[in-house]
Amino acid sequence: MSYPTPDNDTLADRFVAAGHEGDDIEADRVLAGLSERLFGIASEPLEIGRYVVLRRLGSGGMGVVYLGYDRELDRNVAIKLLRTRNSAGEANERASARLLREARALARIDHQNVIAVYEVGTDKGAVFIAMERVLGQTLAAWQRQQDRSWREIIELYTQAGRGLAAAHAAGLIHRDFKPGNVLIDDGGDDLELRARVVDFGLARSCDAANADDLRGQGNASIQTAAGPIQDPENSASASASLTATGVLLGTPAYMAPEQIEGRHADARSDQFSFALALYEALVGERAFVGDSVRTLHAAVLGGQRRPPPRSRAIPGWLHRLLDRALSSAPERRFPSMLALLAELERGLERRRRRSLVLGGLGLSIAAALIGSAAARPERCTGGEAAISEVWNPERRVALRAAFLATDKPFAAKASEQAERRLDLYASQWAAMHDNACAATHLRGEESSAALDLRMLCLGRRKSELDALIEVFAEDHLDPRIVSRAVEASDALAPIDSCADIEALAATEPLPDDPRRRAQVDALRRELAAVKAQRDAGHYDTALVRAKAARDSADKLGYRPLRAEAASLLGSLLGLVGDAEGAAVALDEAFTDALASGHTQVGAWTAITAVHTVGVIGHHSDEGRRWAHLAEPLVDRLGRPPRARATLSSNLGNVAVVQGKLDEAEELFTAAIEQAETSLGSDDILIAKTSANLGAVYRRKGELQRALTAYRRAGSILEANFGPRHPVMATLANNTAVVLQKMGDDIGAEQNYRRVLALGGSSIAAHSPTLGHSHNNLGELLLERGDLNAAAEHYGEAIEIWEAALGDRHPLIAHALIGLGRALLADGNAEEAVALFRRALELREAAKVGNADLDEARAELETAEAALKAQADSI
Asked: pLDDT by residue (tens digit) across 298-318?
């Protein structure tokens, strides 16, 4: 710093005078000047503005920080003074502007977790900032001081996060968050630690262009602003620096991917840096490693995180939160710092609630010990008897008789598979019932409150099972219910969720009023019956009851129940094709679920909305938004495999709608892998997803891979449903299409005829799928030259599609053109012209693409020319 230095004699006189007057501050200032003159030690400024400089606190790439004294207000301050470095005037101007920007940014924020700025000014051509003097240390130093529990770490990082959120609310981003830029003020009392975010030297307005941020500096020596009071011995924190080609670096260790690439940085970039620092504090190691800036940045950009050490265990929910915040893509992170902090606080609150629920542990253990001698083994063995009230030999016989009475070729297999699933469900229910009882009354592991929560959950599962069996055992059973029996059995709510005490305790408790409680219980039994009808395929009846149940739930005003009713209604509206109505109901359900802590309903509502809104409603971007909402809730539930796999599969269907086939392939593959690890290799979800994957491969022209995916789906479906089930028709038709494109006409014809063989017995005589196979088989026979047989199948397709879809549906045009070609090839140009004209009319009315219109026009022109030629020859 180029401050003028008084001569030695003047300084010495002032030093002596200060000593006589007892002015230690003045004496220290003068001594600094003498040291430079007499011993060649670099001088420090004696005054900055109105502040007396007491001593240096630290320094960094941009400036030096001093402890100063404000004579006017009688307080100590921290003063940051810009480092000149003897650089050109333009460079000094840029540095000065940067420091002023920091001061102005800080001055706009009034928050207890952000350092307070008192004044910004210039002195002898140098810019300075006078700010709050914090007694304490940096967060980095606090972390190194001793081992800290994850709760202690989260407490201080949450405070720092609030400071960042306050900056974001003021329209600013920090862009250089790290433990060295957070100060811990202990105030002399460890119980009142307070974190303050500092050093906004890299801050920008959130809506300002970032074109000049750090672009092109990925492999350079990046100098960062100094922390206001960081002690010199702590400034080279190992956790905040890297050594590359001999240069000490700070910021690169905490940069978000978009900053590394020089792209626009926003509040989510601060979130990434925050999560990196928090991860390191919790785990004791960096999430990304590299022996140089280049290799470090490559690891960050490639998402190559090293696994955390087993010695530093942190809760699973916290791992999942960090996973999301450290997403390479900003859009997959939390939408804001406040959202991240809210999730942190929810996690801590769940732990506290669980502690309260388990708070009776000591008393339970004592009770168990006192009563252990008298405890009988049969005390907690009532689960099997309880569940036999709804699933027993009598109802098994009734179910089997109802199924077989439909006389469907797949009824016996459906009965066998449904019974097997219901047996397993009942067995799991009984085991959970007895385990919950034993955990409280025998082992003393859980309180009575926890037992109450688990039993309420099991009671709902029992009602759901009872309602489904009631539908299955109906007299004069609808064959459609038999065809959906296996899937309906799989759709029963999982038993293991009744062991998640944290999630159960987080849900808004039942009303205190016994009358309202009874109404809630009755309405939940009604919802179980409606769900059973929905899963069994009785959409129309279920929809009427669901609307009535939603209205009743609204009147009761118990939010978890409102969420359950609205979610069920939304799913049904989607199934009957009312995507807009479904979106409204699902949004209502999601809001009530979040407001009442009903995470399970919230998660499944969002998962359902991905498909209902994104695929059925053709609002792809909204479907993706629902997926982002679903992800943290699925994480909060412990990432149950069926939920994870269904979410990936639904999002894959959204990608298909958008034509993003590569992404769809990745999502379907991920869904299959997720399901295989926990649900088994023969789960129906895997079969359905494999079929979807086959369709993607077919559209991409990867026919052999499509065939492999279809065959895998077929083997799983046949094992679960049998060869005569309706689902096998669609799969056989799709397999035949692939074989036909591959040139295997024999294999294609076998599969088409397999579909036709199911017509009238397994599938309706006017099923659109049956029409597809007739049409496709007609095409195959036409290519073979069997004109009469081809015309017969095209005619069947037209008749089926007209009956099923109406006589104006554009799909009929395919069969009309095929039949016209067969007739034209057989010399009947007049009828061919009529067919082609009708096909063109259907396609024009439907406003199909130009390629389809051109095809119809070309066929019509050809037929008209042939007809004219016939007339001319007469």
From this structure: 888 888 877 776 656 677 778
